[in-house]
């Protein structure tokens, strides 16, 4: 029974493991770039979940062809095309904020930024 | 056979994700993240999601990696952060709780590839039947993306536009 669970739901289990890896990186790592990498892994895991739902056993890719019994579910593919592009937009904005933080504080480590904020009354607001 | 390939690739994927957050050198992390995206693209091909696969290969593995590499012209490529004990305990507690809830959730999910589940029987056969003579497109994904859900795609374009403006404004802030 546990073997059945592992084999037939391995995709969903892998999704959960990837979500947890991404969340761990976002919570624990003090480096801002590592947090963005965690966000990337998180968004990929959600895409993996949707694509796993869309697969039908014995199904072919959703393009019309002859002698095809069954097609895969095309709707999650469409939704995930949108999700990939939005994920890259998030990455771009986050990385530009990181560059600005580096120019202002001279570091991208969370602890050092908090320390600088506490020591200086006025941060040079570029 | 498909299930064996699937399990193999997913295991590789988890290893790549762990490695990319394990490395202390940020350049290593970024390159492993690019390899991870490429693995994901191959996995989508084995799962028959072809449009998603080439979008992921071009946008996820290509542009995303280039953006990360562009940041290294400004920052130091090393992770000097010290992992705090209390924050790690808090994070592990949260992750166990979230993981427990999610595993409870997947016990109700159908088996992988079940053709009789509700997402594959409600509304989707209708789409597959009508797409050919209503839009004339051979690729069903393209037909839904451009025709049935055209407003959604329009909104996606708006998101890209807003993200571009935001990046431009943030990077030019303070330089009059």
Question: Could you characterize the architecture of this molecule?
Answer:
- The complex is a heterodimer of chains A (about 130) and B (about 180).
- Chain A is mainly alpha-helical.
- Chain A has one domain: Helix Hairpins, CATH 1.10.287.3510.
- Chain A is about 70% helix and about 0% strand.
- Chain A contains five helices and no strands.
- Chain A has helices at about 1-10, 10-30, 30-55, 75-105, 110-120.
- Chain A is elongated and about 70 Å long.
- The N and C termini of chain A lie far apart (about 60 Å).
- Chain B is an all-alpha fold.
- Chain B folds into three domains: about 1-80; about 85-115; about 125-175, no CATH class.
- Chain B is about 75% helix and about 0% strand.
- Chain B is built from eight helices and no strands.
- In chain B, α2 (about 25-45) runs antiparallel to α3 (about 50-70) and α6 crosses α7.
- The longest helix of chain B is centred in the middle third of the chain and has 22 residues, at about 50-70.
- The relative contact order of chain B is 0.06.
- The model of chain B has no long low-confidence stretch (mean pLDDT about 85).
| Quaternary structure type | heterodimer
**Overall morphology of chain A:** elongated
**Strand-residue proportion of chain A:** under 5%
Using the coordinates above, name the CATH class of chain A: Mainly Alpha
Secondary structure elements and their pairing?
The complex is a heterodimer of chains A (126) and B (176).
Chain A lengths: L1 H7 L1 H19 L3 H23 L20 H31 L4 H10 L7
Helix pairs in contact in A: 2-3, 3-4
Chain B lengths: L1 H21 L3 H21 L3 H22 L13 H22 L11 H4 L2 H12 L4 H9 L1 H22 L5
Helix pairs in contact in B: 1-2, 2-3, 6-7, 7-8
Question: Tags for this entry?
Answer:
heterodimer, A: 126 residues, mainly alpha, elongated, B: mainly alpha
Briefly characterize the structure.
Chain A is an all-alpha fold. Chain A has five helices and no strands.
């Amino acid at each position: 029974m546990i073997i059945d669970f592992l084999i037939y739901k391995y995709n969903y289990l892998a999704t959960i493991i990837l979500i947890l890896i991404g969340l761990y990186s976002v919570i624990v790592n003090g480096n801002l770039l590592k947090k963005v990498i965690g966000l990337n892994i998180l968004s990929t895991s959600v895409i993996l979940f949707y694509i796993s739902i869309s697969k039908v056993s014995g199904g072919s890719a959703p393009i019309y062809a002859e002698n095809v019994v069954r097609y895969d579910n095309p709707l999650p593919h469409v939704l995930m095309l949108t999700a990939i592009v939005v994920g890259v937009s998030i990455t771009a904005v986050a990385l530009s904020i990181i560059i600005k933080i580096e120019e202002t504080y001279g570091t991208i480590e969370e602890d050092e930024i908090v320390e600088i904020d506490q020591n200086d009354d006025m941060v040079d607001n570029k | 056979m498909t299930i064996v390939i699937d399990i193999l690739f997913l295991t590789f994927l988890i290893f790549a994700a762990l490695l990319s957050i394990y490395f202390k050198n940020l350049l290593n992390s970024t390159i492993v993240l690019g390899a991870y995206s490429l693995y994901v693209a191959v996995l989508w091909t084995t799962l028959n999601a072809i449009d998603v696969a080439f979008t992921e290969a071009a946008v996820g593995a290509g542009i995303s990696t280039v953006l990360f590499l562009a940041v290294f012209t400004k920052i130091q490529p090393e992770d000097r952060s010290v992992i705090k004990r209390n924050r790690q305990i808090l994070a592990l507690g949260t992750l166990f709780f979230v993981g427990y809830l999610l595993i409870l959730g997947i016990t109700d999910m159908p088996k992988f590839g079940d053709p009789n589940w509700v997402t594959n029987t409600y509304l989707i056969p209708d789409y597959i039947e009508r797409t050919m003579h209503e839009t004339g497109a051979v690729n069903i994904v393209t037909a839904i993306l451009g025709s049935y859900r055209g407003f959604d795609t329009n909104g996606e374009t708006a998101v890209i536009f807003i993200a571009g403006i935001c990046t431009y404004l943030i990077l030019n802030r303070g330089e009059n």
